[in-house]
Amino acid sequence: MKKEMRFLALALVAMMMLVMIAACTKETTAIHAPGEDEFDDNDFVYMDLASEMIPLTEAPPLAFSAPTAPGTLTKSNNKAIIDYSNSKDGYIMVKFMSNTNKQLRVLITGPSNVQYQYTLKQDTSYEVYPLSDGNGKYTIGVYEQTEGNRYSTALSATIDVALTDEFAPFLRPNQYVNFTAESNAVAKAAELVEDSTGTMEKVAAIYDFVVAYLSYDRIFAREVTQGKHNGYLPDIDQVLANRKGICFDYAALMTAMVRSQGIPCRLVVGYAGKDYHAWIDVYNEETGEWVNTAIYFDGKEWNRMDPTFASTSNQSNAIMQFIGDGANYSARFLY
Question: Which of 234, 195, 236 lies closest to 213 in space, CA to CA?
Fold first, then answer.
């Protein structure tokens, strides 16, 4: 009887050890590469299955790509270089070849013959310029100041543009809507749309923030009209930090935030009534249409919206009626 009990005890111990071994082996998996002669005796890899779990706190990939100047397609001389390698993506990059204290300009004329005039940095860094006029032939000129308002041609090029899609110029950063993956405005946009679904909800979340957060800088606006800030370009993170700006700042900040979410958005410069003004258009992929003069929701439907007017007028009925009337807006330039 004692022998039988001892045998039973040994059997139970053996079974427990087998269970323990089996439980331990579930933590790792041994994988052997195929082919007996390909590797030596150490070609076993032990993989921790827990390492395959995706961390839930990982940030989603950004919806835009930074502009680049790879040098694949260029026109250059000893004065300047025009890199049009990414013209299909709706932009070119231009730089001057040496530092200068003279004013520099870039003129871009597209198939509609509308001429866009930009400034160019006076150092040797690239600037990004959009090809806003769709498919067709573009003439690009780089000009160097000679005296006063006189400029001489430093470099010119003519290129044929075939965009990957019509939205390409309005999805990426450029000189007027300048942002990067590290911009505070991009991080803020991601935070604002975290609980939003669909294009219009995201745009509404960004719009509501911009209108409520910024105040109109009347002093700076007066200085601009007096010619004290020629060539002014918005710094969207500075606008965000200062919590104020002119219409150009409002439109550039909102455009950058919307584009960072992969939503096509046009910064438009033109006339609102008799005043030179800036506003935005947003493409609604759910309806397949551009919502011109941007977005305003009255509780029943989406209407036109201008983030500057809506903010400075506290969204009064009168201003919303003005905003909602497309006849009050006349677009001149798209960025």
Answer: 236
For residue 102, the tally of other CB atoms under 10 A from its CB is: 14
Residue 103 Cα to chain centre, angstroms: 28
DSSP state string for 129-153 = EE-TT-SEEEEEEEEEEEETTEEEE
Q: Please, which residues have CB within 8 angstroms of residue 75's CB and are 6 or more apart in sequence?
A: 81, 82, 84, 140, 155, 156, 157
237-260 per-residue burial string, b: 16 or more CB within 10 A, e: under 16: bebbeeebbbbbbbbbbbbbbbbb
The rounded distance, in Å, linking the Cα atoms of 18 and 2 is: 24
What's at 104, amino acid-wise? L
Question: For the whole model, what pTM was predicted?
Answer: 0.73
What are 39-71's pLDDT values in tens digits? 333 333 333 333 333 333 333 445 677 899 999
Q: Residue 292 and residue 205: Cα distance in Å, rounded?
A: 18
Find, among 228, 264, 234, 265, the residue nearest to 248 by Cα. Answer: 234
Residues with Cβ within 8 Å of 208's Cβ and at least 6 positions away in sequence, in order, are none
Spatial distance between the Cα atoms of 20 and 201, rounded to a whole number of angstroms? 54
229: which DSSP letter? Answer: T
- Are 26 and 49 within 8 A, CB to CB? no
